[in-house]
Write a structure and sequence with these properties.
Length: about 525
């Protein structure tokens, strides 16, 4: 009887008997030579033949290219590519799973990128985002359909507005966002609710219980991360959706946080993402129930939420789709601000002198009775502004993206049509030529007295051009409110491990990085006499 070890390849193909090692060696040699030829052709001959095309970072495995490295740590890959090309900051390309993506890292190219609205398009990116969020194709298509005449413009009729250029709802939405979030009447209303909500939740009695680790009559020890997550997500949901959302759906906060923890799996179409999808589904169902409430119960909702509901319903969007669209709003309004506030406090609390300077500076923003003057906070606290800007510089890992509709020349390099072009913020923010040396260090007063730095084309925490984040004003105010109110209400003591947690640079993010692993700060809040 034959044993299993006798049943090998050589039993069936006897001519290979005894020649295994040499066949293996020859196969490896052939594959290696093929790859060598591929590399020589792709990264030496081709660039020489086509000098007008952006250079590509060499790789060994055709099709896959740098896909694994990008998913594992996109930031270090783009930095490696920039350095590989001698830090000349010319456009370069990376192949990621069969697709060639183009990257811009010089301030001039980035300005060209944001100004070019003719051949660099964003519509398809938002469309794909909606589909990824689970919105039906039908609903997305309707949002991108332009009305043929004013008579057919059901959206403007429902809103009681004029749309003389007959824009589609997707384009009108950009205007609605600006009306809500650029300084003006709707912005000020929203800011007032934010302030009231944050002030309430940072008062001793209002501290969210889930963030408290120990307490006595005069002090509470809290997880800083959980405190800020709860305070800011609850404040934003109330300010935008009105009080009824949290009253009727309190678990939506945790559902959002569970989704946020793994949201990158959605963009990367990650296979093992059941928990993320489940959290997203719970969030959408909660909003669908909110949409089923009578309008009167939502009368304190913000302008933008009311406008989204009215305009989408005018297009016959189902509540199921509308809920998913509103989930995207919940995501953009919440995903970055609690992280930015966390880093602002984490870095600030390292430096006792800076704490007392910011305390002095922000004291004047409060009246004797403890009311916070939002305008003073926004405009007359330069150290606090510098701290927030440095957080945005240091902790940002977003990328702006456009798709070329026709072949496009940037910095004398030709980018083919239908290509994705990216601006990785991290590469701009760590440019010593712009931000001075020591860009790898967190310097809270880096922006102090340097207005030009904040306006620099290289400072892009909020992107730019047609997709410039409309939430940038309220986001900065939220961080400033949190810092100023905490410093006024409490003496703050970091307990145990006092160093700043590490940034999670490996998890892909759409904005501000979170802390790595379980990174957090245990903070003792010792109640002060003047506590509100
Ligand atoms: C620290 C906080 C924030 C950061 C770092 C941030 C960052 C960004 C970035 C990088 C973009 C994409 C820009 C681009 O592609 O060029 C963006 C877009 C956007 N952000 Fe923010 N954001 C923040 C807070 C907010 C808040 C609080 C809101 C709303 C309340 C908001 C609403 C939006 C919207 C609606 C867009 C899409 C703009 C468009 O495509 O027309 N953001 N944000």
């Amino acid at each position: 009887m034959l044993s299993s070890s006798d049943l090998n390849f050589s039993s069936f193909f006897p001519w290979t008997l005894g020649r295994w090692p040499s066949i293996a060696v020859s196969s490896v040699t052939v594959v290696f030579l093929a790859l060598l030829c591929f590399r020589f052709w792709a990264f030496t001959v081709k660039p020489w033949l086509r000098p007008d095309e952006p250079r590509e970072l060499p790789y060994w495995i055709p099709y896959f290219g740098h896909a694994l490295e990008f998913v594992n740590n996109g930031q270090s890959l783009t930095t490696r590519a920039r350095i590989y090309f001698k830090n000349r900051r010319e456009p370069f390309a990376l192949t990621l799973g069969g697709e060639k993506l183009y990257f811009l890292t010089s301030p001039d190219d980035v300005q060209t990128f944001y100004k070019n609205t003719t051949s660099l398009k964003f519509e398809s990116v938002v469309y794909d985002l909606g589909i990824m969020f689970g919105v039906s194709k039908q609903a997305m298509d309707r949002a991108y359909e332009k009305p043929e005449s004013e008579a057919e413009d059901v959206v403007s009729r429902a809103l009681g507005t004029r749309n003389s250029r007959l824009k589609c709802l997707a384009d009108l939405n950009k205007e609605f966002w600006k009306m809500q979030l650029h300084p003006g009447e709707h912005y000020l209303e929203l800011q007032d609710v934010f302030l009231e909500q944050i002030q309430h939740r940072l008062g001793f009695a209002g501290i969210p219980p889930t963030s408290v680790r120990a307490e006595s009559a005069e002090e509470k020890t809290v997880s800083l991360l959980e405190l800020l997550q709860r305070v800011l997500v609850e404040a934003a949901l109330t300010a935008f959706f009105g009080a009824v959302l949290l009253e009727s759906e309190p678990s939506i906060v945790q559902d959002f946080l569970d989704f946020d923890d793994e949201n990158w799996k959605l963009w990367y179409k990650w296979p093992n993402a059941d928990q993320m999808f489940a959290a997203k589904g719970r969030m959408a169902k909660a909003i669908e129930r909110y949409l089923g409430l009578p309008n009167e119960q939502r009368s304190d909702a913000s302008f933008i939420i009311k406008t989204f509901i009215t305009s989408q319903r005018a297009l016959d969007t189902s509540d199921e789709d509308l809920a998913k669209i509103l989930c995207m709003l919940v995501f953009v309004m919440n995903t970055n601000t609690y992280k930015a506030s966390f880093w602002a406090l984490a870095f600030l609390l390292q430096d006792k002198d800076f704490v007392s300077q910011i305390k002095d500076e922000t004291t004047n923003a409060f009246s004797d009775s403890g009311t916070l003057d939002s305008q003073y906070l926004a405009e007359s606290c330069p150290r606090l502004s510098s701290l927030v800007n440095e957080v945005l510089r240091f902790c940002s890992a977003s990328s702006s993206m456009r798709v070329t509709s026709t072949p496009t020349i940037i910095n004398a390099k030709l980018i083919p049509a239908n290509s994705r072009v990216m601006v990785p913020t991290h590469e701009l923010h760590f440019n010593d030529a712009v931000f001075g040396s020591l860009t790898s260090q967190f310097l809270p007063d880096r922006f102090l007295g340097k207005d030009n730095l904040e306006k620099s084309p290289s400072f892009r925490p909020f992107g730019g051009g047609i997709t410039h984040c409309p939430g940038r004003f309220i986001a900065a105010q939220e961080v400033k409110m949190v810092v100023a109110i905490l410093l006024r209400n409490y003496d703050l003591d970091v307990i145990g491990e006092t160093s700043v947690p590490e940034l999670e640079t490996k998890k892909p993010t759409t904005g501000i990085m979170g802390p790595k692993g379980e990174g957090d700060i245990l903070l003792r809040l010792l109640r002060k006499g003047e506590c509100m």
